[in-house]
Design goal:
The chain is built from eleven helices and eleven strands. It is of the alpha/beta class and 312 residues long. The strands form two sheets. Strands 5-6-7-8-9-10-11 form a seven-stranded mixed sheet, with helices on one face. It is globular and about 55 Å long.
Length: 312
Amino acid sequence: MVYDCGSKTKDINLNQIIDSVFQHDDEINLLFVSHFHEDHINGIEYLANKHIIKKLVIPSLSTIGANLILVDYLYNLHSTSNINNYANRFIASCYNEEMPFDQSNGVEIIQIDDKVPQIPVHDVWEYHPSCAATGYQDFISTLIEAVGLQDCYDLFNGRNFAVIRDYFEKDVNIDKLHNFYKSYFEEKHKDDNFYSMTVLSKAVNDDIKEPSCLYTGDFPSRYSHCRKKLISDYKQYWDDINTIQSPHHGSGRDNHVEIHNVKNRNCVISYGKNNQYRHPHQKALINMINSEAIIHLVDEDQSSKYQTVFEF
């Protein structure tokens, strides 16, 4: 299983790191993409070219979800220089409901909404993905009102990535989009990681509790409705989760004390050295220390890799 594959750290060779983890032609049963930000997807092209991927699991691309993702992409495209070309193609393909990479074996695409399915692998292991996005039903109508362009309805309903992208690349439209995007998330107290998909990895046998791990991506736990949904989705397993990947690279705002309310968990913080956000944040570390967590710092140095091996 692979959960996200990407990085924006400039001084690393991502392809080399992928090669160090897998042998050529290894099969990947499941590739989870938590959300569509570049640092979580720009290594997928190389991964897919070198290895067989059986299932791709992504956040829901319902009309609302897809358009949230598209506007998020357009905002970041014009706010960030040198956005990765493959990240661009990956998002466009998913939005147009096309396969984002070429594989002759045929890859099954699974979309995750607000329900929590069970995805078994072999007889001993299973995965429970959940998508955090809730409360964005007013997004498109609010956007159209703010931008002042009623013909946007037809654009968004048409679900054609290139047409919508070209429309908003006109200077006047992209400026309006930027202003709307910033005000919507600030005023609504929401976050542009709204659709980050979490995954609980565990043994099929519920009596085997120790190996379980919760992958959180950039989950926005700063918001109470997101935290409540996460804890509710995994309620029957919450107290027994052995390892948790610290949300959002150890962000202070997204490592809320309620996420770290179980003592003696392994907390893995994956972050880039010398990152501009100063992750991991002191506040996140304090919340983990107060819960007596066992903290593992993982960066580009492969010697920092965190690995747990279980025998059944």
